[in-house]
């Protein structure tokens, strides 16, 4: 067994794998508490690069950017050190020339022409260099035409001084003009909120600009940082997922003159599709917000960042309004910028809400009832078949149609099935398909008429006396009034 130990912030996870292989088990959930953020609230990224090896030489290849990225204390130290070393080096070169020519010993000889007038020692050589480099020109120390090596050194000093000035002063100017401090006047709300907006579950946070100068072409983006494991067993620490804040509709392009509420609609395409109020208590994620724009006064690009962890996302909250109309202008109250209040919000995720809505849909009930009615109609038909076989042969002859009940019930069952299927149709189609001639009352009247036809035909076949007897009294008294011969004839006729 081999153990793979991973550290994500201050959360440690131990994952074991067997020698025979197999996928990595999912990481164990760390206990709730304050954990290491990937991006601080002020936008600083908590990432340190280590074990670079031979890659450190890449920093020297881009020395100017390396100096600009350094902290101010290191920039000032390099600035002072570079000028001090350059001045001491050039002053030493002038002193060496004076020493090699013997100007130091003949400095007070008026008949001798030195390389540099009035240079007696190293301090005087240093002052000559400073006067020349700073173009002060006091006029007391100057170079003469009897020193060609001094002229060459003077040219080298001018070129080297220009390069050092351009490099260091340019580096300091770029560092001072960086728009990082402009991001200090761009505000983000301390918490994010989840509540209903326009009938949809929405993740919201607020941004604001404290300066009167605008951010040109301001654009906002959101990233979701969450560790996950792929179906193949690969563990992805701090996997980055995009949160749509209006890219398709252009809502991510901001006109940031007053505080704005940025919205992310939680739908089937959102990473928060299955996020509920209960699951937020066990989830671990971080939402990184990036606001970019061009500073109107300098024309330089500025970027402000912040992040929200799962503890800073409030379920069922909404932001207070901060804009009010005054006399001739709109007033922004920044005291309510971070304030929220509770609103009624379902604690279920969007996925759970869609499943509950699907289960409560009325379109499912007719389908179930149709199947039950079909089963009942089939059972009724089977029962009628059994009853029909048990009837005497005389009654089967009277009806004259042995399969009539079965057909009739099939027709009625078909009618009921049509009625249930019509319930699934829209109202317009139900009105069109509901023809008055197919009502149940007419169907029942037709059935009664069909049942009465065989009986009327059988009575019509009797002799006139028997028809009279059957019409005057009931069928039970007719046989009692007939003579024995007629009774026998009547019985033979029915059999």
Automatic annotation (TrEMBL):
<feature type="transmembrane region" description="Helical">
    <location>
        <begin position="151"/>
        <end position="174"/>
    </location>
</feature>
<dbReference type="GO" id="GO:0034702">
    <property type="term" value="C:monoatomic ion channel complex"/>
</dbReference>
<keyword id="KW-0406">Ion transport</keyword>
<dbReference type="GO" id="GO:0015467">
    <property type="term" value="F:G-protein activated inward rectifier potassium channel activity"/>
</dbReference>
<dbReference type="GO" id="GO:0034765">
    <property type="term" value="P:regulation of monoatomic ion transmembrane transport"/>
</dbReference>
<keyword id="KW-0633">Potassium transport</keyword>
<dbReference type="Pfam" id="PF01007">
    <property type="entry name" value="IRK"/>
</dbReference>
<dbReference type="Pfam" id="PF17655">
    <property type="entry name" value="IRK_C"/>
</dbReference>
<keyword id="KW-0472">Membrane</keyword>
<dbReference type="InterPro" id="IPR013518">
    <property type="entry name" value="K_chnl_inward-rec_Kir_cyto"/>
</dbReference>
<feature type="region of interest" description="Disordered">
    <location>
        <begin position="454"/>
        <end position="495"/>
    </location>
</feature>
<comment type="similarity">
    <text>Belongs to the inward rectifier-type potassium channel (TC 1.A.2.1) family. KCNJ3 subfamily.</text>
</comment>
<feature type="domain" description="Inward rectifier potassium channel C-terminal">
    <location>
        <begin position="186"/>
        <end position="356"/>
    </location>
</feature>
<keyword id="KW-0813">Transport</keyword>
<dbReference type="GO" id="GO:0005886">
    <property type="term" value="C:plasma membrane"/>
</dbReference>
<dbReference type="GO" id="GO:1990573">
    <property type="term" value="P:potassium ion import across plasma membrane"/>
</dbReference>
<keyword id="KW-0851">Voltage-gated channel</keyword>
<protein>
    <recommendedName>
        <fullName>G protein-activated inward rectifier potassium channel 1</fullName>
    </recommendedName>
</protein>
<keyword id="KW-0812">Transmembrane</keyword>
<keyword id="KW-0407">Ion channel</keyword>
<feature type="domain" description="Potassium channel inwardly rectifying transmembrane">
    <location>
        <begin position="39"/>
        <end position="179"/>
    </location>
</feature>
<keyword id="KW-0630">Potassium</keyword>
<dbReference type="InterPro" id="IPR003274">
    <property type="entry name" value="K_chnl_inward-rec_Kir3.1"/>
</dbReference>
<keyword id="KW-1133">Transmembrane helix</keyword>
<dbReference type="InterPro" id="IPR041647">
    <property type="entry name" value="IRK_C"/>
</dbReference>
<dbReference type="InterPro" id="IPR016449">
    <property type="entry name" value="K_chnl_inward-rec_Kir"/>
</dbReference>
<dbReference type="InterPro" id="IPR040445">
    <property type="entry name" value="Kir_TM"/>
</dbReference>
<feature type="region of interest" description="Disordered">
    <location>
        <begin position="16"/>
        <end position="35"/>
    </location>
</feature>
<dbReference type="InterPro" id="IPR014756">
    <property type="entry name" value="Ig_E-set"/>
</dbReference>
<feature type="transmembrane region" description="Helical">
    <location>
        <begin position="76"/>
        <end position="97"/>
    </location>
</feature>
